């Protein structure tokens, strides 16, 4: 099953807001509907956003203003703008050429995830591994197979995985809703933990590696990813646990020199004061909701891409 694809003249994608309760495909025929799906996280995760952006250009019928709006629908994951640009470069050649580039980009993502899975699994030493991860970096965040969760899936397939500790990932619970759903379908052993338990569980010992994905990697290796990644990196360093970033090279943004230049998406206060429509905080409570944080490069043991391994 693919998270996102082009089917009979439209984008079809899994509506991730309905998981794990319902597996529903959305059929998207306009750029506005795609922007709405991206902003409410029906489709999310850097590689999937890249593919969505590229297919979205095929829906735009050459409307450059619509393409510009799509490119900026979410600011932190560089793959969205990159995917849009890759497809838009073929606008002069017509819709078929745009679509052909988007389909190639989809296929490249599938191959990249297979390559990262193998390379990451080769890099991590030991058997009976216990690993920790945040957010969702699985097939749902890409096309057929994930990045960091793709490595974990490969470890599982090779019989080397003892347990995954998955952070629930407040406020939108990508860990609890999506990563748990994917691990369950893989038949991989896992337990869910509260986000704030991550660093202290690392300190307690018995965890072999932390694996995260990335939304944008600056030229110096600083890495933007789901908020909470930085606390895990600090905890991992303190505990002497290797901390791996797994991402395709399309997530590396050489035009951004370092992490302080990465735009961090601020999302609605409502996502913090309530959970899935149920208000938790007193009415009128204000909230601050940065969706991502930046892990400085010196806290990263290695960045595993589809082509190589970068070390500090
Ligand atoms: O807000 P989201 O769910 O789009 O955030 C996703 C992440 O932070 C992922 O870790 C990242 O995009 C890498 S996905 C392979």
From TrEMBL:
Catalyzed reaction equations: 5-(methylsulfanyl)-alpha-D-ribose 1-phosphate = 5-(methylsulfanyl)-D-ribulose 1-phosphate
Molecular function, one GO term: S-methyl-5-thioribose-1-phosphate isomerase activity
UniProt keyword list: Amino-acid biosynthesis, Isomerase, Methionine biosynthesis
Enzyme Commission identifier(s): 5.3.1.23
Active site: 215
InterPro entries: IF-2B-related (IPR000649), IF-M1Pi (IPR005251), IF_2B-like_C (IPR042529), Initiation_fac_2B_a/b/d (IPR011559), M1Pi_N (IPR027363), NagB/RpiA_transferase-like (IPR037171)
Domain of life: Bacteria
Any one of the GO BP annotations: L-methionine salvage from methylthioadenosine
Pathway: Amino-acid biosynthesis; L-methionine biosynthesis via salvage pathway; L-methionine from S-methyl-5-thio-alpha-D-ribose 1-phosphate: step 1/6
Keyword RNA-binding in annotation: no
Binding positions (substrate): 44-46, 74, 174, 225-226
Site feature (Transition state stabilizer) residues: 135
Gene3D superfamilies xrefs: translation initiation factor eif-2b, domain 1, Translation initiation factor eif-2b, domain 2
Role description: Catalyzes the interconversion of methylthioribose-1-phosphate (MTR-1-P) into methylthioribulose-1-phosphate (MTRu-1-P).
Family as reported in the entry's similarity comment: Belongs to the EIF-2B alpha/beta/delta subunits family. MtnA subfamily.
Protein name: Methylthioribose-1-phosphate isomerase
Primary gene name: mtnA
């Amino acid at each position: 099953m693919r998270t996102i694809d082009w089917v009979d003249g439209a984008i079809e994608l899994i509506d991730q807001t309905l998981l794990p309760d319902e597996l529903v495909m959305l059929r998207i025929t306009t750029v506005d509907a795609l922007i709405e799906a991206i902003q409410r996280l029906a489709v999310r995760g850097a590689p999937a956003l890249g593919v969505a952006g590229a297919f979205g250009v095929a829906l735009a019928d050459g409307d450059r203003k619509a393409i510009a709006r799509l490119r900026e629908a979410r600011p932190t994951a560089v793959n969205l703008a990159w995917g849009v640009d890759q497809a838009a470069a073929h606008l002069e050649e017509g819709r078929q050429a745009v679509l052909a580039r988007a389909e190639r980009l989809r296929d490249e993502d599938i191959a990249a995830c297979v390559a990262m899975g193998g390379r990451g699994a080769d890099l991590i030493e030991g058997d009976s591994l216990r690993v920790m991860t945040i957010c969702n970096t699985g097939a749902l965040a890409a096309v057929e197979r994930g990045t960091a969760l793709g490595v974990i899936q490969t470890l599982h397939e090779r019989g080397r995985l003892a347990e995954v500790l998955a952070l629930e990932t407040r406020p939108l619970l990508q860990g609890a809703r999506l990563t748990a759903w994917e691990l369950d379908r893989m038949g991989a052993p896992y337990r869910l933990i509260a986000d704030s338990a991550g660093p202290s569980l690392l300190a307690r010992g018995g965890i072999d590696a932390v694996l995260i994905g990335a939304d944008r990697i600056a030229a110096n290796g600083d890495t933007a990813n789901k908020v909470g990644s930085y606390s895990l990196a600090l905890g991992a360093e303190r505990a002497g646990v290797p901390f791996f970033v797994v991402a395709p090279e399309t997530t590396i943004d050489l035009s951004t020199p370092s992490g302080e230049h990465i735009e961090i998406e601020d999302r609605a206060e409502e996502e913090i004061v309530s959970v899935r429509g149920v208000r938790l905080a007193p009415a009128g409570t204000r909230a601050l909701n940065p969706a991502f944080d930046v892990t400085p490069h010196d806290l990263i043991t290695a960045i595993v891409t589809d082509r190589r391994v970068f070390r500090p």
